[in-house]
Amino acid sequence: MYTSNATQCNAMQRNAMQRNATQRNATQCKAMQRNTTQRSTTQRNATQRNAMQRNAMQGNAT
């Protein structure tokens, strides 16, 4: 009786810990994906800006 309760309790705690870890990993993964998307947008903007500056310089030169 006591042992089975203790074992069940341990098993429940283990499951709870695993569930928490999974949720945490999923959240981190989403955060990383969000960061990646933001980073690519920033890089794209920077590239466009450089191209615009280059075009402006060429326009001035000619």
SSE diagram, text form:
Layout: H1 2-61
Using brief descriptors, characterize the structure shown.
62 residues; rod-shaped; mainly alpha
Structure write-up:
Residues 18-62 are annotated as: Disordered. Residues 33-50 have a biased composition (Low complexity). Residues 18-30, 51-62 have a biased composition (Polar residues). The chain has 62 residues and is mainly α. The chain has a domain at 23-62. It has one helix spanning 2-61. The longest helix has 60 residues, at 2-61. The radius of gyration is 27 Å and the shape is rod-shaped. The N and C termini lie far apart (91 Å). The model has no long low-confidence stretch (mean pLDDT 78).
Poorly predicted residue ranges: none
The assigned structural class equals mainly alpha
Number of helices: 1
Mean pLDDT across the residues is 78
- SSE string: H
Instruction: Bin the strand percentage.
Output: under 5%
Range of helix content:
over 70%
Shape: rod-shaped
The largest sheet, given as strand count, sense and whether it forms a barrel, is: none
**Gyration radius from CA atoms, angstroms:** 27 Å
Distance between the termini: 91 Å
State the total count of DSSP E strands: 0
